[in-house]
Amino acid sequence: MIRILRLLIIQRSAILCAGLFCLGLPAASLADEPAQVMTGIDVLQAQLFAPLEGARVALITNHTGVDSSGRSTASILHAAPNVTLIALFSPEHGFRGQLDVPEIGHATDSKTGMTVYSLYGETRTPTKEMLRGVDTIVFDIQDIGTRFYTYVSTMGNAMQAAADHQLRFVVLDRPNPINGVIVSGPVLDEGKQSFVGFHRLPVRHGMTIGELARMFQNDLELDIALDIVPLQGWRRSQYFDATGLAWINPSPNMRSLNAAILYPGIGLLETTNLSVGRGTDAPFEWFGAPWLNARALAAALNNAAIDGAAFMPVTFTPTSSKFADQLCAGVRISITNRDRFDPLRLGLEIAHQLVRLHPDDWDNRNYNRLLGNDAVLDAVRQGRPLAELEETFSDGLDDFREARSGFLLYRD
């Protein structure tokens, strides 16, 4: 009953802004229940689907596309009386988020009976045939705030398809789980755009998926009608565990908020000959290799004064992925103060120490695939310390922060 009353209050207070569906919500309406962030799909329901009135929709989503009660966005739009759901699409890891394979085929949604077209198979962009009869593409997937997480690329490709076929694009916004304040790491070099680097972002961009869509539209000059159904009650400083929302593993190896916080720095290393914990119970919370001197590296990292983290030598044996069934010496990362911890500083310090301790063992030939910045790569290979590594990308990061400010939807 409380939820119904809350939705009615929100519906009565809804206002429509140019290019953005906004809500004015009296604080008193939430006094009788714990504060909780409302995602775009919750807000859309509160508006009785007014932003999609009469639309013929293609929905790009996966298992993270659910409302606050756990009901899937696909089922919600399929049942909405004033919306026609024409097509479903899924990103990397598939519609149910369980696959970790190089290519995924089409599937069927058991709840709606609809075909789910894979955007991680023969094509990574919706085709004209897949979009037949559609006038609006809707995107609802939980991102994790790191440049090389591919859900952002799927959205960017779909926005390009919307521009090519003169379709409207609507984003049901979701929180940045590692907060929307901190921006860090090298900005992607021009010319290095790829499916793991769709746009010239720093590794940790500090934006929501809706804010990124606004940036993509502007920077790529996409001629589309773009609307964002925004979050209600989210503050930029919040990590995901402060939102009141249920954590759903966005991908098979992203199993906790701690892993998501560490991913911008530790994920950078997985194109080298290091295990980042795939095939174990704690991906991205430790890393290692059979050749690693774990004690020396853990000591070096503890001595490096990486704020908000501590490091312990460990051993682990992955059951799959890199070094499957091989004993790895590694380092376990404990986040002791996430407000002071910068995963990019850690990732770059690890690279620096690997060059120092293992110049002949660490194979960094593919390190730049996710790093995406030649100046930083050269500095790492030259053994330059962390402060000098950060100097190589500080100007680009400052420029990005300034440009980013014009696309933010949430100011506090």
Task: State the main characteristics.
412 residues; 7-stranded mixed β-sheet; 11 helices; Aspartate Aminotransferase, domain 1; globular; Rossmann fold; alpha/beta
Explain this structure.
By secondary structure, this protein is of the alpha/beta class. It has 2 domains: 16-27 and 37-246 and 403-407, Rossmann fold, CATH 3.40.50; 257-372, Aspartate Aminotransferase, domain 1 (Alpha-Beta Complex). It is 28% helix and 17% strand. It contains 11 helices and 14 strands. The protein has helices at residues 2-13, 40-46, 73-79, 151-164, 209-219, 257-266, 294-303, 343-357, 368-371, 374-381, 386-404; strands spanning 14-17, 20-23, 56-61, 84-90, 107-108, 115-118, 136-140, 168-172, 184-187, 202-204, 226-229, 286-289, 309-316, 328-335. The strands form 4 sheets. A 7-stranded mixed beta sheet has the order 5-6-4-3-7-8-11, with helices on both faces. A hairpin with a 6-residue loop joins β5 (107-108) and β6 (115-118). α4 (151-164) crosses α5, α6 (257-266) crosses α8 and α10 runs antiparallel to α11. It is globular and about 65 Å long. The protein starts with a helix and ends in an 8-residue tail after the last helix. Mean pLDDT is 92; it is low at 1-18 and 22-34.
Domains counted in the coordinates: how many? 2
Q: Strand content of the residues, in percent?
A: 15-25%
**Per CATH, what is the topology of the largest domain?**
Rossmann fold
Element-by-element helix/strand order: HEEHEHEEEEHEEEHEHEHEEHHHH
What's the CATH first level of the largest domain? Alpha Beta
Number of strands: 14
Strand order of the largest sheet: 5-6-4-3-7-8-11
